[in-house]
Amino acid sequence: MKKIVADWKANAREDLNENTAFLKSIPKNKKIDDLAFDLHEEVFKKVDCLQCANCCKTTPALVTRPDAKRIAKHLSIPHKTFIRKYLLEDINGELMIARVPCTFLNEDNTCQIYDVRPQACREYPHTNQSGFSRRSKMNANNTIVCPAVYEIVKQLKKVSF
Ligand code: SF4
Ligand code: SF4
Fold first, then answer.
1. DSSP class per residue in 3-47
2. What's the pTM?
């Protein structure tokens, strides 16, 4: 883990343009998605999110309406109160957690609402989901947020297509 995080800290920003171009250039197909899935499994054996939490510290999590209802119920507050107190709505009407670091992040990097957390948090960084190869912009942006994504892309660059 330490080696992956140190490499990410030292190089991710400098490599962003190269990684963006690379991710744009890869074939958009299931073979690449499956490769990314395998790399995701391999890399996350070495990366402990509880030692990191950089996504929760730096990126406002998207919250769907069903997420908001579920979390409000868990907190025993009205849905509208939850939205007003904890969320922001962007110009497209999408909701997101209003604060970074996230309001629900504990000091030990655990999540106060883990069992009911937003779907986007559950699925982040999305590298094990179908359609990986078509999400080049998001994956490139995530290389500077998530050490695991940076490592997955680094390993993917070693493969000849
Ligand atoms: S940034 Fe990546 S490695 Fe860090 S906690 Fe989030 S998903 Fe895990
Ligand atoms: S809700 Fe939990 S998992 Fe999602 S950003 Fe906040 S602390 Fe992280």
1. HHHHHHHHHTTTTHHHHHHHHHHS--SHHHHHHHHHHHHHHHTT-
2. 0.95
